[in-house]
Design goal:
- There is one protein chain.
- By secondary structure, the protein is mostly helical.
- The protein has helices at 3-14, 18-22, 28-35, 43-53, 57-61, 71-82, 86-93, 103-123, 127-139, 147-160, 169-182, 186-194, 201-213, 217-226, 232-245, 249-256.
- It folds into three domains: 3-61, 434 Repressor (Amino-terminal Domain) (Orthogonal Bundle), CATH 1.10.260.40; 68-167, no CATH class; 168-260, Serine Threonine Protein Phosphatase 5, Tetratricopeptide repeat, CATH 1.25.40.
- Helix 7 (86-93) packs antiparallel against helix 8 (103-123), helix 8 (103-123) packs antiparallel against helix 9 and helix 13 (201-213) runs antiparallel to helix 14 (217-226).
- The radius of gyration is 24 Å and the shape is elongated.
Amino acid sequence: MTIGQRIYRAREEAGLSQRQAAGEHMTRNMLSFLEHDKAKPSLDTLVYLSKTLGKPLGYFLGEDGPQVPGWESLREARRQYDAGAWRQCLKELSGVPEGEVLGRECSMLRLLATLSLAEQAASDGRLPYARELSAQAQTMACPYPTPELTRRIAILAARTGAGADRIPEDDALSLKAEQALSEGRFADARRYLEALDLRDVQWYCRMGDALFGQQEYRRAAECFHTVEQTMPKAVRRKLQLCYAALKDFEQAYRYATMED
């Protein structure tokens, strides 16, 4: 079954006319062209039809028998990205041919995987490699730009020295706090963090680390508890260490033996 046939069947099952299904996203004539395979849908259009007609995106691309070259590689790339295997994700994307249907999603996934890999390298102290990846990310096409993604690229560039000489003051303070923590300057890190207005997940983790470094274990535990539900694996070990330092061995043992 072709993509056009799948679109037609989904529309019929949804009980919508071509005009109703097209909405403001496209003209009725364009939808007719798509249904008769006289035009190829973009990824944006497939996402729109998926929501409008109540079908998963894979239905139109045929997960039971892909009609689009590279679809299986893209599916595997998504799976690797979700698993945090960003290098493998990029490897899978290299096997996806550029095209109208898959090209934009491939570009976006390639950018996100490169950014994640660069951020991991920067956190591990592998700055030359992080700098190289950051420079690559700044030249990549971004089919779905957002302010948060632009900010993320700028922060990475500032961390690695690969560009972006000026970033917002709050981001600069966050970077200074991160650097101070890495150098064991816990009082400085705490001062930078206290100057920030934003209290997000990363803020509580970093403040917890700074307080732990200053041996304020009770307050450190309070910070980690704030984000315990959001990122349990990341803070479980830290909570174990806090309670061990507080000689609350029952709580320390509980966090040490928690299953994933």
